[in-house]
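Letters spell out the chain; backbone shape is given numerically. Take this protein:
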Amino acid sequence: MKEQIKPILAITMGDPAGIGPEIIVKALDLKETYEKCRPLVTGDAGIMEWAVKQMGTAQKINQISSVREAKFELGTIDVIDLKCVDMDTFEPGKVAPQCGNAAFVSIIKAIELAMAGEVDGTVTAPLNKEALHKGGHNFDGHTEIYAHYTGTKKYAMLLADEFLRVIHVSTHVSLREACDRVKKERIIEVTELISNACRQFGMESPRIGIAGLNPHASDNGLFGWEEEKEIIPAVEELRQRGFNVDGPVPPDTLFAKAKCGKYDGCVAMYHDQGHIPFKVVGFNWNKETGKMDSAKGVNITLGLPIIRVSVDHGTAFDVAGKGVASPDAMLLSIDYATRMAISRIEKN
């Protein structure tokens, strides 16, 4: 019988004032997590000890300085302690420079471990951009930090849950600029990235649906020219290269079809075109409590030399430390990172 591969995953603490520590504690309190991987946390041991007490679990914190000191045992949370939070001044649910800095150094440590081959993949808990900037680190978010510190020039964001996977031609730019970024070369680039990622998830010949930019994918030029000049030529070239692609598919039907299994992945032309349907599927709002029951979905940065998977939700300062945050997205992130790491290990 083939020996089961259990990759080592570095999980970043996230902003300690948010729900990151809480959802990590919950995810690492489950047997199923340790059955699939060997997790450790990069961050502050004091914060993780505080989170365990807030959650009321019986877990112990194993304060370590290197991967080789980790126990990887259920009931023990291995924490590479960066001593980055002053517990005397720490306040949950508040934007603070020290918390932004703590999130940043936790990420940098995880990147360093992955680049050195000491861990097989990384999973990131949410950070707060305002706190990050107040802490002296002027990045837009995780993706840009990873790209900078790995020297990556071509990368893209992939959103994924169990059934829906979406990559974007552009993300954090104005809608007007996003239209200008719909170019054949970029469409081909991100389609290759999502196709390769789907293969890492175990799909031999992933079928990719490529969205149009305009209503009804322009209806043969009635509502715009981008489909004819940029998207259709990209689809034709991708088919010539052997990719299993369909498009341009009208944006108002693409994601519904993908959810029902017609496509293994979708290429969205801009941020909201992909994010809105993804979050409609994955986020469950409880109108009685006025809070999210769960926020399921992950954010994967493709094109990096290392694996990075993140929960696709924010720090939720309003509920931080109250024990109500759902670990669903963290569990899904660990699952995706595990599958991607195993795929890489088997290829090597």
